[in-house]
Amino acid sequence: MTFFLRRAAFYAFTAWAAITINFFLPRMLKGDPVSAYIAKNQGRISPEAADSLRTLFGLDADKSMLEQYLDYWRLLFSGDLGRSFSKGLAPVTDVIAAALPWTVGLVGIATILSFVLGTSIGALIGWRRGSKADFIVPLSTFFSTVPYFWMGLIAIAVFSTLLGWFPASHAYGKGSRPEFSLDFFGQVIAHGFLPAATIVLASLGGWILGMRNMMVTVLDEDYVTVAQAKGLPTRRVLVDYAARNAMLPQLSSFALSLGFIVGGTIVMEMVFSYPGVGKLLLDATTAKDYPLMQGLFLVITLTVLVANILADVAYAVLDPRTRQMES
Q1: Which of 16, 151, 203, 322 is most buried, judging by how many CB atoms fall within 10 Å of its CB?
Q2: What is the 3-state secondary structure (H, E, C) of 181-235?
Q3: Residue ranges with strand state E in 39-194
Q4: Do you know which CDD domains this protein is assigned to (predicted)?
Q5: Per-residue model confidence as pLDDT tens digits over 198-254
Q6: Do residues 107 and 303 make contact, with C-beta atoms less than 8 angstroms apart?
Q7: In the chain, what are the domain boundaries?
């Protein structure tokens, strides 16, 4: 209980600090969303409308910075992240909610799949170190060193243009609308296969190499030698004794990769014209849409924090020594 209370207090403070920085950072930049919006509309906005927009964006000059900060927290707890002027003054929550499922669905599944495959393959290679299976390590590492945009372009050229097996861009066919039907789900799977496959291929090498090296280290530990001397089944020694301890460092990396699912896909979404959060963040930055940028940064930060909390919990469950050290 002491361990979990300390970690909860730490992450609560971190969340407060991140949200506070997210509030002050846009206000430290030159200009404001209203000025950018007026410039975009070539000044065709009256002073009264400009004042109303500043009030809407929480930039009311009649309020002090502390009052704006308290209003920001009040709106945050009510689920109001402001309005995006680059999306026709649509609520930021609606804009993010429309793009978030595409990124989480595609990159989330690809990240989990690459972690499971890489950890499993790395554990087997480490268990049979010195065998012919070791050639998988340099091969997978080679694909990890290839720039992602280049790998994506090659995949499009080969499997879309040359062979015509998969679509080259977008999340579903042109002229289609999102709906719950087998035909639409089939389009989503077909359009998402190439970007998901390139993500798995690009990240697989790191998981394999990390798990393989940890397995080699763990296999020299006394508890593994004792388990083998007792005559325990090979599968049990591999899974319960060696792989369970070897994968602990992998969990921290996996938590970070889960946290960056939301914001770390800009290149992939640009190459495949995929309508996710990464492309939305790029568009918001280009348009200087501060409310949308602020909302996206907040979602990304909270996602990373939640992922790290889950990693700490899993780490404490798998390794009781962590709880004993913290308490």
Answers
A1: 203
A2: CHHHHHHHHHHHHHHHHHHHHHHHHHHHHHHHHHHHHHCCCHHHHHHHHCCCCHH
A3: 83-84, 90-91
A4: TM_PBP2
A5: 888 888 888 888 888 888 888 777 777 787 787 777 788 787 777 777 777 787 777
A6: no
A7: 101-326
